[in-house]
Amino acid sequence: MTMLTGPPAAPVPLPPRETGPWPVVAAVATGVWAVLVTVPGQVTGWLVDQVVLVTGLDRAVAVWPVVAVVTMLLVGGPALALALLPRSPAVRAAGRAWTGGAVALGAATLLRALPPVHHEAYLAALALTAALLALAVARLPGRPTVTASSGPAVPRPPDAVPGPGGGDEAPAVPAGGGRRPGAVTLLAVAAGLAVLLPWLWVGALGGLLETVLAGLAAAAFGVLAGILLGPAFWAGLAPGTEVRPARLVLVGGLVAGVTLTLLAAGAGQSGAQLPGLVLLPPLGFVLGALEVAARHAGRPAGPAPVRWLVGLALVGPLALTDPEEITLLLASTRDVPFWVAVGTGAAFAVAVLLAVGYGVLLARPRAGAPRRGVAGLVAGALLAAVTVVYVVPGQPGLYGERLLVVLREQADLSGLPAGAPGRAGRDARAAEVYRRLVATADRTQGDLRRTLTRLRLDPTPYYLVNAISTDGGPAVRAWLSGRPEVARVLVDQRPRPLPAAAPPARGDTPAPTGPTWNVSLIGADRVWSELGVTGAGVVVGSSDSGVDGQHPALAGGFRGGDDSWYDPWEHRRAPADRGGHGTHTLGSAVGRDGIGVAPGASWVGCVNLDRNLGSPARYLDCLQFMLAPFPPGGNPLTDGRPRRAPDVLTNSWGCPPLEGCDPGALRPATAALAAAGILVVAAAGNEGPHCGSIADPPAPYPDVLTVGAVDRSRRLTEFSSRGPTGTAAKPDLVAPGAAVPSAFPGGGYATLDGTSMATPQVAGVVALMWSANPALVGDLDRTRRILTETATPATVPTGSTCGGTRDLVGAGLVDAYAAVRAARAG
């Protein structure tokens, strides 16, 4: 084998070894301390984010900067002392690696102040930060520099396996480097691909730019790890080409594992870093085994194996998961958090197996140098396995977020004719509203639609809000925001697909006997028995997770026809519900067998929640369908049938910033529905007892009838969201929302809590009122007045001071019996 020309590099002089156990004891204590500070700190920071999200509070931007500074000080201080004070080369090497890891962790954690919705910007900043840190660490003055061999070329150990050239001298380049990847580097690539393998099964990629930036961030962290755990690090543990398997694998693996823990803690937005905290530390032992294998070949491994192994391992959590979906909001079902846990556990198991396997095969005293051909075959086999897993059981393709482009000009709905009272007048107004909305969309969107189509960005027009949904990342968003006809551009969140759908929800309690307690509390059963009104002739529209159309309490109430059901997520032609939420809420509105307030009313449905997640466009899909239903495969802008619109809508959902909405995102939609004479009833939210927690559209809007929740004792529940909203007194009313029994998929029943449960009962009361007096249909002002004037007092918990009683319980507890009597008298 040809040797490199030129004089050999001089060995780096190493300080004399320090005697006594104290440096080692200090190093062990510092390593344990670093892990005990880092891991709980990261988990706590994520939990704080989740609590803030679940309770509806404003995002605590300062959480992660505080975690960054505290962790960097608590870990970096002791680590820096180890790097500077002891005379032991091994202890100082550990201190340098941990100090670099602590600084990287602090700098990367600061980036989480960026909103999660801007994930591409975060990934770009993360990649740049890691690259700059790598450059800075590589150029630190006084940092030990170690050549490829830490000395001149040395003969192979007597037990070494000859290289491909058949000679018995060590190669003159690092075992992991050179123009072609060496055997050790190929084995590192194989290990990285093996750790990546589970993620390609359970995860899915985002958009193109998001994926590229995630790959760059993972690569940058790999480069940084390669510097921190490169030749200088291993030379401190075992100088020169000395082969000490136990020291390199066990001691070096532990020290490298702590370093990887620190790096993993900074690699990813809140939630995405948690898998790395589990799967990266065992790879430290893999790196130790690779270093032993390289020294069997006569040279240290160099930084390349570290770069490949760490970089490939981080691609999984960075590129194949969406941090916004690693949330407690989805933890109750087999959704993204479940599959992230599965991927993390599988990757951890692979990492442990690699650590044991590489340690046994490569780090034996007489193992010999690995052959490049064998290593190449192993890496090739893993690459093929990765490809097959991604294409066959995985979710190939890109699933990035879309954009909702809201135009400046919205339809003018002023001056609508009053028309005749009742349904005839309502139908005429709905038709005119639909005509104006579509005309405005066609007139103002044409040029932008053509441009987006030419750019292959797949535009979808909307008319209820004059807007267009389109593909595109930050660059497209910036370009669209600068166009004169565009008011603003929202991120339209899109959940990434799962490897397997969660089992459909099933009710596990029997049907109630007689009217449920909540139906009796508001007097709906008296309306049936004493006034003979059940809601017949009125149609209730439900936008939710779906409806079990075969449920015995709901099957008979379905309006039928080809325009009474719409599923923009899965395009199912018949009513169905995987999650159960929509079946439960609709059951409280129109369910039979004593669970629904208006059991004689008909219903239509639309799916705007998939896996308990929605987006501005999906909410618009369903609200448009409610204004002007259309047949399967129809075009909402041309095939809508406004005269088939339902009368009252129950909406037990809200669109938070996490899903892409801003406060005004759906305001034109509810205004148009109100102008058409369609009453929108919406849940206040479950973010109580915080004041001002009625915040997510559409609950704060003045033309929406917003509903809070009380318990059996007519007492406001702890979870019910409160005002003030800053625009209108909210909620408008309260209804029973604690331990409410209703229908659930599969023919059974379930008991749930929430303002979601209270909302459909108010929609059911409206159906009873309009059934009793059809002249009220479409008369929203008069209907609201009757509801508020007939409401009964609700109890406010002691100490609740959110501006006043109206900001807690509105006009009070809805009274179905009194409201229907007043409607009939009118």
Model description:
Belongs to the peptidase S8 family. The chain crosses the membrane at residues 21-41, 61-85, 97-115, 121-140, 183-201, 213-236, 248-268, 274-293, 336-361, 373-392. One of its GO terms (biological process) is proteolysis. Residues 535-794 form the Peptidase S8/S53 domain. Residues 568-580 have a biased composition (Basic and acidic residues). With 826 residues, this protein is α/β, with parallel strands linked by helices. It folds into 3 domains: 22-153 and 169-391, no CATH class; 402-492, no CATH class; 517-825, Rossmann fold (3-Layer(aba) Sandwich), CATH 3.40.50.200. It has helices at 22-55, 63-84, 89-110, 119-138, 183-202, 208-228, 231-237, 245-266, 273-279, 283-296, 304-319, 336-362, 372-391, 423-454, 474-481, 517-521, 524-531, 581-590, 616-627, 667-675, 755-772, 780-790, 806-809, 816-825, and strands at 402-407, 460-462, 467-471, 486-492, 539-544, 565-566, 602-607, 648-651, 679-683, 705-710, 733-736, 740-743, 749-752. Strand 12 and strand 13 (749-752) form a beta hairpin. Helix 9 (273-279) crosses helix 11 (304-319), helix 10 (283-296) runs parallel beside helix 12 and helix 17 crosses helix 24. The longest helix has 34 residues, at 22-55. The termini are far apart.
